[in-house]
């Protein structure tokens, strides 16, 4: 008889409530994808995928600690982060190297507002038309900023979860090497 998959409660990982919900949402999907890609159903990750599918959405969710499950989850979050970055590029935002600070965002917003005001003043002869265009651009820009803020929050959550998963994977690998 096979032993059950090792796991820890996801509430003990130091994650926020939103991050726990995100982990619970993505762990079964990651394990199901890994299970579908692996044609062998008798591995420990297959047992782990079944266990995660039955536990993943519940209030007592657990993070599976077997190397295959952690690897599948790490790959899933890597792919998710790449998708978020592609989406950010689609809305016209490129992440600078290093963290994006609120101060940087405020500076960009201020500069864009200044440019909009200068453009409106230069078009004095067609002020009404210029104002309508500027309002539409500002609304579009605000929508883009909202999307960027939302993507940044998701990116930070995913990065935090990915880092914890990697740390657990390293611990499990170290324990497996000792045994």
Class from secondary-structure proportions:
mainly alpha
| Share of residues in strands | under 5%
Order of helices and strands: EHHEHHH
Uncertain spans:
41-46, 48-60
Task: Tell me the span between the first and last alpha carbons.
Answer: 20 Å
Question: Would you kindly provide a written description of the structure presented here, covering whatever features stand out?
Answer:
The longest helix has 52 residues, at 127-178. The chain has 179 residues and is mostly helical. It has a two-stranded antiparallel ribbon with strand order 1-2. It has helices at 17-37, 44-55, 67-90, 102-122, 127-178, and strands at 7-9, 62-64. Helix content is 73%, strand content 3%. The chain contains five helices and two strands, in the order βααβααα. Helix 1 runs antiparallel to helix 2 (44-55) and helix 1 (17-37) packs across helix 3 (67-90).
């Amino acid at each position: 008889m096979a032993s059950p998959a090792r796991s820890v409660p996801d509430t003990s990982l130091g994650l926020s409530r939103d991050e726990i919900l995100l982990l619970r949402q993505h762990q079964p999907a990651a394990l199901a994808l890994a299970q579908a890609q692996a044609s062998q159903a008798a591995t420990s990750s297959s047992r782990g995928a079944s266990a995660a599918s039955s536990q993943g959405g519940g209030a007592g969710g657990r993070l599976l600690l077997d190397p295959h499950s952690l690897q599948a989850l790490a790959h899933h979050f890597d792919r998710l982060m790449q998708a978020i970055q592609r989406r950010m590029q689609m809305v016209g935002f490129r992440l600078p190297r290093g963290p994006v600070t609120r101060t940087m965002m405020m500076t960009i917003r201020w500069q864009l507002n200044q440019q909009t005001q200068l453009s409106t003043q230069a078009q004095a002869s067609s002020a009404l038309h210029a104002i309508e265009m500027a309002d539409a651009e500002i609304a579009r820009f605000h929508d883009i900023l909202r999307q960027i803020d939302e993507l940044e929050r998701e990116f930070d959550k995913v990065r935090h979860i990915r880092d914890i998963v990697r740390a657990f994977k390293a611990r499990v690998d170290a324990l497996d090497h000792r045994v």
